[in-house]
């Protein structure tokens, strides 16, 4: 699939400023900016995964699992709080089965995305019920961002994860089968970790986090799960307790040949302790 990936430009501004972005308007503040990012859209080939078993979480930053889950694609919009605990339990059980090295797995977020027909030409504001696809190549957390997120989601429990080994994982799948704006993942072995990765302050309404953005490198190799069904799970690591393990940099990408309905997807964010 020939498409484009949105990278972060290697801007001179980062010599004097840290990269940052917000998810809310700041027009009412004189001189304020929502971001200091400059996009660097690059033509890339995103290859279809031919052998899902080839991909390893600890090598490539992502892997693929086939497992049955039960989540009503309508209830997740209208009854999110009521259905998320049961879905979390299913995902945690699947991960325990496939990754026995984890002693404890705790879900802390369920994000639903539903593409607006005008996306990406017009990105609507933040919605409580669902979000838009994320088209910038990124990983959700830096090593510092890991602890900021845990402190926010599990307040007062710092002593529990102190000096413990853990991974921050996402489990992503479509809510309904479609080839519209699939999730693309960058093989971690093709990333120059010294030159291609940029720390980014993610300023949210209720949290200041820190994530990672990706600069373009023609060595990068991108992949997607063609014809992904609702029981085909993409598992990727965003970061870990020491920031040393393979990460799954990812982005939603336009499929020029898409014929399916507008993309709807669901992802769970988890912390997995060794």
Q: Can you tell me about this structure?
A:
The chain is α+β, with helices and mostly antiparallel strands and 274 residues long. It has one domain. Helices cover 15% and strands 33% of the residues. The protein contains 5 helices and 14 strands. It has a 5-stranded mixed β-sheet with strand order 1-3-11-8-13, with no helix packed on it. The protein has a 5-stranded antiparallel β-sheet with strand order 4-12-7-14-5, with helices on both faces. The protein has a 4-stranded mixed β-sheet with strand order 2-9-10-6. A hairpin with a 4-residue loop joins strand 9 and strand 10. The longest helix is centred in the first third of the chain and has 19 residues. The N and C termini lie far apart (37 Å). The model has no long low-confidence stretch (mean pLDDT 94). InterPro entries: AsaB-like. This is CmcJ-like methyltransferase. Belongs to the asaB hydroxylase/desaturase family. GO terms for molecular function: oxidoreductase activity.
């Amino acid at each position: 699939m020939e498409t484009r990936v949105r990278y972060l430009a290697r801007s001179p501004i980062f010599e004097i400023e840290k990269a940052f972005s917000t998810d809310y308007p700041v027009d009412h503040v004189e001189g304020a900016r929502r971001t200091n990012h400059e996009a660097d859209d690059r033509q890339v080939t995103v290859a279809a995964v031919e052998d899902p078993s080839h991909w390893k979480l600890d090598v490539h930053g992502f892997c693929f699992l086939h497992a049955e889950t039960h989540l009503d694609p309508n209830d997740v919009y209208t009854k999110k709080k009521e259905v998320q605990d049961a879905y979390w339990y299913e995902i945690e059980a699947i991960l325990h089965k496939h990754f026995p090295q984890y002693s404890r797995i705790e879900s802390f977020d369920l994000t639903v995305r539903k593409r607006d027909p005008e996306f990406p030409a017009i990105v609507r504001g933040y919605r409580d019920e669902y979000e838009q696809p994320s088209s910038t190549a990124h990983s959700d957390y830096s090593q510092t961002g890991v602890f900021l997120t845990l402190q926010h989601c599990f307040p007062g429990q710092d002593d529990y994860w102190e000096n413990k080994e853990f991974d921050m994982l996402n489990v992503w799948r479509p809510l309904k089968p479609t080839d519209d704006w699939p999730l693309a993942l960058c093989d971690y072995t093709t990333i120059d970790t010294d030159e291609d990765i940029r720390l980014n302050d993610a300023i949210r309404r209720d949290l200041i986090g820190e994530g990672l953005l990706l600069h373009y490198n023609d060595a990068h190799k991108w992949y997607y799960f063609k014809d992904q069904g609702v029981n085909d799970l993409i598992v990727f690591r965003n970061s870990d307790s020491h920031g040393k393990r393979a990460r799954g940099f990812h982005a939603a990408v336009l499929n020029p040949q898409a014929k399916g309905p507008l993309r709807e997807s669901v992802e769970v964010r988890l912390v997995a302790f060794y």
